[in-house]
Amino acid sequence: MSLDPVAAPPRERPLLSRALANRSFVLGLAVTVTVTLVALISFFWTPYDVTDLQVSDRLQGLSLAHPFGTDHMGRDILSMIMIGARNSIAVAMVAVGIGMGIGVPLGAWAAAKGGFADEALMRANDVVFAFPSLLSAVMITAVFGPGAINAIIAIGIFSVPVFAGVARGAALALWPREFILAARAAGKGKVLITVEHILPNIASLLLVQGTIQFALGILAEAGLSYLGLGAQPPMPSWGRMLFDAQTRLAVAPHLALIPGLAIVVTVLGLNLLGDGLRDVLDPRLRRVR
């Protein structure tokens, strides 16, 4: 009498295979890489000098010489879009770095410490979240003056509680787990456990949150620049381009359409990338075929 062999558990596909099979991840990555390459190229080359004003060429439409046309001062819009991408990415990247660099250690520390420290951090987060982040960033830049540096600080400050809350919640879910209890039984302290076990296990969640905050940072930078509180002329900015175009929509709608599309496409690409990363990295959302 023969016994049926025990069915082996299905093998999980490799990470790269899962990522390439996820359409949101592939599309978001393609858009993000394209915008990043455009920003990097702007460090070395742009079709025209954006500080060179050619009033005789003002408000030109799309042409071979100017694929995206020119603005009200005769500047090439394609060159301004390229440099605007560089500024938006730089501001959002540094701001997210500030938020992650301060917020993640705070959240992990609160989860490990517990008690009064944990409660104090959560109440501080509630106070910060009670104020709309963009309005608070406007207040900070209005008090300390407009400019890219102050915009970075303002956006970074309001990214801190987001990362602190995410890191705390994820870390609290891990502390009762068996492998953490085994590490504590082996004599490891809370700091060592946090560094060796907690942070590596929540890194994927923080990466997904980072892409989302990156998109929000680009939107915040565009909003501040639109209000005149971000990057200052003659440095181009997508938000500033929208502000300059609002009084010329009837004459030259491309002045607002092109930077607006740049913001939409970039933010959409980052959101798709974040959704794809969540689907690929979160084991609860994986579907083994």
3D architecture notes:
The protein is mainly α and 289 residues long. The chain has helices at 15-21, 23-41, 77-113, 115-129, 133-144, 148-157, 160-174, 178-185, 190-226, 238-245, 254-281. Helix 2 crosses helix 3. The longest helix is centred in the first third of the chain and has 37 residues, at 77-113. The radius of gyration is 24 Å and the shape is elongated. The two termini are 33 Å apart.
Note the overall shape. elongated
Rounded Rg = 24 Å
Measured by DSSP, the beta-strand proportion falls in under 5%
The overall average pLDDT, rounded, is 83
Classify the secondary structure makeup into a structural class: mainly alpha
Q: How far is the N terminus from the C terminus?
A: 33 Å
Descriptive keywords:
mainly alpha, 289 residues, single chain, elongated
